[in-house]
Amino acid sequence: MGLDPRKHLGKDIGFLKSYLHKLKELYGINVCGEGGEYETLTLDCPLFLNARIVLDGFKIVMHSSEAVAPVGILHPLAFHLENKAESCSSSGIDKTSEICKEKVGLVFEVQGDCLHRPEATCQSAAEVTKLDEVAERRLHISRTKNHNTFSICCWLQDSCESSAGLQEDLEAVLRKIELKLVGYGFGWENVVYIHLYIADMNKFSIVNETYVRYITQEKCPFGVPSRSTIELPLLQVGLGSAYIEVLVANDQSKRVLHVQSISCWAPSCIGPYSQATLYKEILHMAGQLGLDPPTMTICGGGATAELEQALENSEAVATCFNCSISTSALLFVVYCSTYAPSSERHRIQDKQDTFLKQMRLFQSDKASIVKVPDPIFLYVLVPDLPKRAHVEIKPILYVPEDADVTTGTVQELSCVRMPSYWGFQHAHWHDSCFQKCVVHGKIFAVILCITSEDVLKICSESLGGDEGNRDYQNSFQEEQMERVSRFCIYLLDKLYMQDNFSWDDTQNLRFYFPTSLGVPVEALSLMLTNAFNELAEMGQRVKIGEEPIFNLVPVLGAGRSATSMDNIITCELFAQKA
């Protein structure tokens, strides 16, 4: 109110100072624009160590021409950098600038462990009492063993009747993870990525309000973690309303991209998270929706159009790190919501394959782009996504520090004797159960899919002659699931040995299971725990602690293609050597 895009966009803030104060007297606006009255384009500040931005040309794009409150966007057409006369070490540069040794585009690079770690969130006596009550409701933790980058997962395992509600459950889980981080000598600033699973996407705003009480810019001075938020059928399997997995780094040498303002090149963050975080040559990208960047609305055209827009957004983010999703991606997780018609799902996969193929051809003549083996894919069916989107994609990319490094798959070690646990012997059909991507002998990603047909083969020795008449998706017995759980651990261990990796290299290990499986989550967790314990006793290749090294993620379905998300169980594993 009182601001006209045609008159005031592109003006220096100092030029408008007196006018803004006048508007404050007339209408009570916030002079600094904190009420959403306007956004600023920063052309120079102390963080810009070497040069300032000079805007050579722009145009005003009208978003809304309402008489009372018109909305417009300043779209830069041409600009250049102008070197600063003063050096970076001048007295005008604050301590924050001294910490930031290097800037690349919109990317913060944090060097060393030089920042003071904020204290854990203060709690009142009532909050502590509430946390004690939560502990009685069975608050669970899992943790992988990688020394450089490990995951911590926390969830409430109780019936839906005893769940206190999404906000209370989320506070309990966040507080528990925060205490765990402090116990390890870390804080939220060490967190690289957060998977936030909730029971009701309609409460997304409440989730963000609760989330920012714990994860703030003050605690993460150079960028909050990247994040993916997904609705899962948590209550249907007897879990609480909030379930969180965090990826933790043992130092702060990360680079973070945060898109805060409306732009035409990439969507701004719709929550308190960063678009991407690069750590130890792995680029962890936030879940990408089919958002049109200038308007921040889901693009029309259904699931296929949303997927294409999400891929374009992902490519824009990847470009900031001098890479491409078509040549640097290791793994794509594609979440499909139930709002996407089943008839569109085959077109989703076709669109993704076509987009990546065309992008790969476009990138083929760029010598600076590092090319890795073909990525692997996992499709997951979930109840809902933010903004009621049909599709969300979550890419993981390899961005080597040395651009000249050669990449490729590592040859399997034929001299290594393959394990033979629980009576399982190597068979050629095992190869059809997994997708694998191994890069430079130090990065290892696997998607393991067990279908009902695979279950027939796994359990053929113990099921008798009527196995062909069983409906595994609806009447699965725990004794067969125990056999399948052991097979999954056996096959993962075999793949680790083939490529000279160990369980200590694991960063995250997720087992997705459909709610229709009919096996209680406690029983499934016990089966996998027992399998790992037995593996440790047989080969001592895995170290067992008080906390499991895996997460159980309930979904509506999962699979290696968008048209067959009907696996009995699906495993996603990511490992990296130090």
UniProtKB/TrEMBL annotation:
Task: Tell me which Gene3D superfamilies the record gives.
Answer: putative n-type atp pyrophosphatase, domain 2, RutC-like
Domain (Diphthamide synthase) ranges: 17-60
* SUPFAM superfamilies hit by this protein: Adenine nucleotide alpha hydrolases-like, YjgF-like
| Keyword annotations | ATP-binding, Ligase, Nucleotide-binding
Q: What is its EC number?
A: 6.3.1.14
Any one GO MF annotation of this record: diphthine-ammonia ligase activity
What chemistry does it catalyse, as a reaction equation? diphthine-[translation elongation factor 2] + NH4(+) + ATP = diphthamide-[translation elongation factor 2] + AMP + diphosphate + H(+)
Pfam families tied to this protein? Diphthami_syn_2, Ribonuc_L-PSP
Q: What is this protein called?
A: Diphthine--ammonia ligase
